[in-house]
Amino acid sequence: MTREDPRATGDSVEHSGATDGVEVSDVLEQLEELEETVTTAEGRTHLLETKRLLERLPGGDEFEEQIGKYTSRDVGEAFVGSVLFALPLLVEDGVFVIADHFLEAAVRGVPVFLAANIAFVITLTAGLLYAVDIKEVQITNPLFGLIPRRLVGVLSVSFLTAAGMMVMWGRLFLDDPTNTAAFARITVVWAAAALGASLGDILPGESKGTDLTIGNLDDIIYSE
Length: 224
Fold this sequence. Notes:
mainly alpha, 2 domains
């Protein structure tokens, strides 16, 4: 009497056929959705480890260029990029000329060109992060459910870097400018710093480390 091979049964065939359409990308997408509901650091760690294992399987290569997490290392990379792009402008007196130009035209007391430059910096940064096909940057856990954390981080780091370096190098308050003129000078350098911060953040790819979300920060602070 021969034993029947269970792989030849109809039930096994049906089970095999039911999973033919499942791909690594489908599982990873489900894990991305599940990650938004996990509230503990331990749970996020397990999810991350599972995603890393899946990405090593055939069919997971396409996710290697995706950037989802926003970590402290991303902040550091943005800072380095800001410094590299801001440095050349710190020794240029043309920054003062451009800043004065920003303040020449005003509508109801609002400097038109200064406002336009701020809008330009924000649009340029958002375009580099999310529109230009350098890396696929995902928007995860946005602030207030709407504002991308990475965009806010890159803009904040680049602005603070531009302002701090101008103060440190004695360029911000040269010739005793008004507060508005000093702010205008910062925005000139900020335009270049934001470009460098964006590239410095996304070019290396997704960084390792703990994702900078409110829940994760609380877990880190109160873990001990």
